[in-house]
Write a structure and sequence with these properties.
The longest helix is centred in the middle third of the chain and has 35 residues. α3 crosses α4 and α3 crosses α7. The protein contains 13 helices and 13 strands. The chain is globular and about 75 Å long. The chain is of the alpha/beta class. The two termini are 20 Å apart. It has two domains: 136 residues, Aspartate Aminotransferase, domain 1 (Alpha-Beta Complex), CATH 3.90.1150; 233 residues, 3-Layer(aba) Sandwich (Aspartate Aminotransferase, domain 2). β2, α4 and β3 form a beta-alpha-beta unit.
């Protein structure tokens, strides 16, 4: 009788893994109702304390920053950060090719040019040595994506920013709660952008925030997201049109409630993620990202592991993933295509901007570490799974089961 569920055997987790998200409490409902009943659904000309302004103050404190600007999305946060840092038409911005496309779309929305850099093989973070080699006289900024919640090397980025005079924007869409050398990410450099989209560790459905310690930058950022002044908020008049990227009062109230639980949830994810990483290292063949003592708190969007086919009988990753899923284990492969291979970049499909600005030939670009990682290695478990210890135990038990039945696993890879 076969043992693997993909061949008809009993699955390890017949009911799947527990992953309730978003998690909604009585306090969340009460917060939204408070904002609903206030009659003030936008903080513009609010006649009472604004939910948005209070959230900005609370989130800045929670992430060790002086200033916060709440915005409509994480993409808007990056775009406004770039604008406030002086990025404009025809400038180049270096960004990792391993990220959600919004990291590069924000650059395009500024009329600027994304320049894609490779990643470090054992952390999946921006290869800063490669990024530095890409700097040209047109380079104005770097977007450092804290991919999966694992932070980029902020020490090296600070050196690069000081040496080359570049604005470094932290893309923290995955990194709620992550800390580097005892300080949470977001304002270590020029600015940081967060997302509060539904899948994120802090969510209101859709939303974003910009963090910075720079008083001049936050003033420019405010003016780039909304022109008329708002009481108690920094403001600089710009003789240019600004988009409406404001966050509304109802989602801000929900964020304020959700924020009260972020610290505890981050600690739980970190504890379970640390245990899972240790167990996977013992098993071999599914290697977690490299540990770094400078990461003093690990926030998660993905738990990332690197699949080594040679330790599973040369079974391709897709077969391994399907075998895990048959056992009831919800595993993904993250973003399966690096940005420099996406059609909108290879085809220069930028709504006419390509006729005005010179873009690289992305189709000809080779970024071998990223290409290999996304095509053959990366396995991902989403952050809600890390809230429950039993999920992690089931992941380990299932991978051990596949290792113990390699003949059956290999048979799944054979052509019919």
């Amino acid at each position: 009788m076969p043992q693997l569920a993909a061949l008809g055997g009993p699955p390890v987790a017949p009911e799947g893994l527990r992953s309730e998200w978003p998690a909604v409490t009585y306090d969340d409902r009460a917060a939204v109702l408070r904002a609903l009943n206030s009659g003030q659904w936008s903080r513009v000309d609010c006649r009472q304390a604004s939910e948005v302004s209070q959230f900005e103050d609370e989130f800045a404190r929670a992430h060790d920053a002086r200033f916060c600007l709440a915005l409509a999305s994480g993409t808007a946060a990056l775009q406004v950060a770039l604008r406030a840092a002086g990025v404009g038409f025809g400038d180049e911005v270096i960004v990792s090719t391993v990220t959600w496309y919004a990291s590069a779309a924000a650059i395009i929305h500024c009329g600027a040019v994304p320049v894609f850099a490779d990643i470090v093989p054992d952390t999946y973070q921006l290869d800063i040595t490669h990024a530095e080699a890409l700097i040209t006289p047109r380079t104005r900024a770097v977007i450092a994506v804290h991919y999966a919640g694992y932070p980029c090397d902020l020490d090296a980025l600070k050196s690069l920013a000081a040496r080359d005079g570049l604005a470094v924007i932290e893309d923290c869409a995955h990194a709620h709660g992550t800390a580097w050398r005892g300080r949470r990410v977001g304002a270590h450099l020029a600015a940081g952008g967060f997302s509060f989209q539904e899948s994120k560790a802090l969510t209101c459905g859709e939303g974003g925030a910009l963090l910075t310690d720079d008083e001049r930058l936050i003033a420019r950022a405010f003016a780039h997201h909304h022109l008329p002044p708002i009481a108690s908020r920094p403001f600089v008049w710009l003789n240019a049109p600004a988009p409406n990227f404001r966050l509304a009062e109802l989602p801000a109230a929900l964020l304020r409630s959700q924020l009260t639980r972020l610290g505890e949830q981050t600690a739980i994810r970190e504890r379970h993620g640390t245990w899972l990483a240790e167990e996977l290292r013992r098993l071999g063949g599914v290697e977690p990202l490299r540990a770094d003592a400078r990461i003093t708190q690990r926030g998660y969007y993905f738990f990332v592991a690197r699949y080594d086919a040679t330790q599973f009988g040369d079974v391709p990753r897709a077969v391994f993933v399907n075998a895990l899923r048959a056992e009831g284990i919800h595993v993904g492969m993250g973003y399966e295509v690096p940005l420099h291979r996406l059609g909108c970049f290879t085809e220069h499909n930028f709504d006419g901007l390509e006729a005005l600005v010179r873009f690289p030939d992305y189709a000809a670009q080779s970024l071998p570490v990223a290409e290999h990682a996304l095509a053959e290695e990366q396995l991902t478990f989403t952050q809600p799974l890390l809230l429950y210890a039993r999920n992690c135990e089931l992941v380990v038990a299932t991978i051990m089961k596949l290792r113990n039945h390699l003949d059956e696993l290999r048979s799944l890879a054979k052509p019919e």
